[in-house]
TrEMBL record:
Keyword Transmembrane: yes
Cellular component, GO annotation: membrane
Keywords for the protein's UniProt record, in alphabetical order: Membrane, Transmembrane, Transmembrane helix
PANTHER family: PQ-LOOP REPEAT-CONTAINING PROTEIN (PTHR16201:SF11), SEVEN TRANSMEMBRANE PROTEIN 1-RELATED (PTHR16201)
Membrane topology category: Multi-pass membrane protein
Protein's recorded name: PQ loop repeat protein
Region annotation (Disordered) ranges: 260-280
Record InterPro entries: LAAT-1, PQ-loop_rpt
Annotated compartments: Membrane
Biased composition, class Basic and acidic residues, residue ranges: 270-280
Amino acid sequence: MSGLEECRHLEKPSKVQFAGSCFLMVWLFVCYIPQYARIVRRQSAEGLSTLYILLGSLSGVCAIGNILVLPSSAVDMGCCRVNSYFACIGSLLGLMQVIFGIACFWVILFLYVYYSEEEGEDEKSGRRRSTAWMVLAVVGGFALAVLSLSVMVLRQTPGMAQTYADMLGIAMTCLASVQWLPQVYTTWHLGHLGSLSVVALCLQTPFTWTFSINMMMRYGVEGWSVWVVYVFVGIMEWTLIGTAVLFHIRDRGRGRISSRLSTGSGLGSVEERRPLLSHA
């Protein structure tokens, strides 16, 4: 299909898909609000794994680089010169969704760095305040490297854009699929969620699967590198929610045992205070 035919195809975007994409972006922001609020309220990043933050941020950089260098994205951006404003936004919504999602995660990165300075004691997982700044420096350097390489590929070897995008997609998938393993370990090691919001997880999981299906429909099998990562993320989010449920059941069980012991000791005290012989 020629560039002109592609632009004609994008000239009349589906209003239903447009509305659905906008709804997903709003939903995504709502998903992150409980996580932001929990970190700010506790004024601590305890419970958030350093590797989870690092790998998630690096994965996000790969995701942005992947979708920016995809040949289909180049066509979408090029068609904005000839198509209407509405058609242009509609064709770029997939790209905007990915960038917006990564931006939401980067807010957690910045909160993590900020509140690591506010914490008086290092958390049990061994995180140090200097480590948070190191994570930010690594992510910033990696983003600069990926951006520079992407510009070089698009300008000097545009024919390699699809291959380069696939490489970034594979890197993104690998990083995102292992990103949640350190978080699951940290949560299990601490024995509680800490600053990790289970409400945010419960909101994000259905979003993740809905968004992955939306990306499948938009980019198809050829654009597998865009959406396959969200399938892995959805599975790991289920795992964390299951861990939170186990902690809740455990804490309820401990509460019942503690309550029974308190009741039993109270009855014992009453029995001890009763006279051995009752007067007639």
